Amino acid sequence: MSNLPKNVRDETKCLHSGYDRKNGDPGVMPIVQSTTYVFDTTERVAELFDMPTSHMYSRFSNPTVEVVEKKIADLEGGAAAMCTSSGQAASLFAILNLCKSGDSFVSTSTIYGGTLNLFAVSLKRLGIECIFVDAEADEETIQKAFRENTKAVFGETLANPALTVLDLEKFARIAHENGVPLIIDNTFATPILCKPITYGADIVVHSTTKYMDGHALQVGGVIVDSGRFDWTNGKFPEFTEPDNSYHGVVYTEEFGPLAYIAKARMQLMRDFGAYPAAHSAFLLNIGLETLPIRMERYCQNGLTVARYFRDSDRFRAVRYAGLEDDPYHERAKKYLPGGACGVVSVIIEGGREAALAFMNGLQLASKEVHVADIRTCVLHPASATHRQLTDEQLVAAGVDPGLIRFSVGLENVDDILADIEQSLARMEQNL
Ligand SMILES: *Cc1c(COP(=O)(O)O)cnc(C)c1O
C-alpha cells in the first residue's frame, strides 16, 4: 500500500509491503502469468535493451515476483531483492555476481550440504575457489584465509543441519577489514528471528522453500542486498567499469545503492535464467503473509520438543540453541532473541539401528527429504544426506550414526510428543 507508514512492524509488512494497491485494484496481489509485456513503439522496445526501466520479459522480472521481492527486501531491511527459482540458485548467483574464474571467497564450513557441494565442487569446476574456515576460529586465524583475489565471505545465521549460531558481527568485521561483503544465508532464522543486515551483513540469501513458503508447496530462493556495501573500493571493477553487454552501463553510477541487484538481474538472470514463475511467487506470498505468527509457534514447539529430548534418558544428546544449556545459547540470545526455529537435532541411545527404529515407529512425523516443513518431519543424516560415509567417517564429520534431524511442525505439540512416546514404547516392546 502506498500509504503504508515507514516504521510498521514485521506482521504488518508481511501483509502489506510490496503491493501498491490503487483505487479499484484487486485486494490480493494478482498472478501476472505472462511471459511478455507489450509496448506502443519499436523505439520504446529498443530503449529497454539499453536500460530495462519496465518489465520486458519474464526470464528476469515479472510484476507478481516483484511484489514478493519488495516485501522480502523490506522485511530484511534491504534496498532491493531478486527472487530465484531455488535456494541453490540464490547462493550461486550471490557468489557469481562477485567472483569470476580465478577469484576466491571464504565460507564457514558449517553450511548446508547442498551449498557445500556447490562451493567445493561445482564452483571449483568454474575456477572459483572456496576457502573454508572454522566459524569458531579466532579472527587472526580466519584472516589467513584471505588472498588478493578474495571477493566475499559466506556463512549461515543458524546452520543447517549443525544448528550452530554464527557470530555475525565478528564475520562482518573480518569481511569489511578485507574490503569484501558478508553474504549470510538466513534460511532457518528468517527475517522474523534475525535480520543479519542490522549486524553488518551486506547480502542476505534464502531458500524460501523452507519457513518462508512454509507450506512445502514451492521451491524458491531470494537474494537481498543491503545497499550499503561500497563497490567503488577498487576490488570490484565489474561494478565500476562499463558493462559492454548493457551498452556500457556502469552499475554503481546508474543504480547507486541498487547496483548489486541490478547487476545480478541484468547479467546473471538475463543470461542464466533461473527466475521463478508468477504462480510460484504467488504461493510464496501466501506463506509470507503468516510468517511471523508461524515462526513464533515453531519456536515454542521446537523448544518444548527439545526439552522433552533433553529430559528423556532414551536420548543421549540434543542440540537446540533455544535450550539454556546449549553451547550456542548465549549467542542465540543476542542474534535470535525471538527463538531458535523448529529444527532440533537429537542423538538417540543405541546408534543407527535405534535411530531407524524410532523414526520408522513415528506415525505423525513424515519421513521425507525436507526440513522446516509445516508438518513435523524427520531425516536420518547417516543414511540419507551423509549416506556415502562409513560410521567412523560419520563421527569424524560430526554426524553421529544415531543423529536424527527432527523438524518440529505446527501440529499441536502434545500430539507431537505423544507420537514420540508411542514410538519409544513400541521400540521397548520389540526389545
Ligand atoms: C534448503 C537449503 C538451501 C537450498 O535451497 P533449495 O531451495 O533447496 O535449493 C540453502 N540453504 C539452506 C540453509 C537450506 O536449508
CATH level-4 homologous superfamily of the largest domain: Type I PLP-dependent aspartate aminotransferase-like (Major domain)
Label the structural class: alpha/beta
- Poorly predicted runs: none
Supply the CATH architecture of the largest domain. 3-Layer(aba) Sandwich
Query: Termini distance?
Result: 61 Å
- How much helix is in the residues? 25-40%
Sequence of secondary-structure elements: HHHEHEHEHEHEHEEHHHHHEHEHEEHEH
- Tally the helices: 17
Q: From the alpha-carbon coordinates, what is the Rg to the nearest angstrom?
A: 22 Å
How many E strands? Answer: 12
Averaged pLDDT: 95
Strands of the largest sheet, in order across it?
Answer: 1-7-6-5-4-2-3
Strand content: 5-15%
Major β-sheet profile: 7 strands, mixed
**In total, how many domains does the architecture comprise?**
2
Q: So what's the CATH class of the largest domain? A: Alpha Beta
The backbone outline, from C-alpha atoms, is: globular
Give a list of the ligands: pyridoxal-5'-phosphate
Word description of this protein:
The structure is a single chain. This protein is an alpha/beta fold and 431 residues long. It folds into two domains: 26-287, Type I PLP-dependent aspartate aminotransferase-like (Major domain) (Aspartate Aminotransferase, domain 2), CATH 3.40.640.10; 291-429, Alpha-Beta Complex (Aspartate Aminotransferase, domain 1). The protein has 17 helices and twelve strands. The chain has helices at 10-16, 42-50, 63-76, 87-96, 113-125, 139-143, 168-177, 190-193, 237-240, 251-255, 259-272, 278-289, 291-311, 329-335, 351-361, 391-396, 413-430; strands at residues 80-84, 104-108, 129-133, 150-156, 182-185, 203-207, 221-225, 315-319, 343-348, 366-367, 377-379, 403-407. A seven-stranded mixed sheet has the order 1-7-6-5-4-2-3, with helices on both faces. Helix 1 runs antiparallel to helix 3 and helix 3 runs parallel beside helix 12. The radius of gyration is 22 Å and the shape is globular. The protein starts with 9 loop residues before the first helix and ends with a helix. The model has no long low-confidence stretch (mean pLDDT 95). It binds pyridoxal-5'-phosphate. The site of pyridoxal-5'-phosphate has 16 residues, from helix 4 and helix 5.
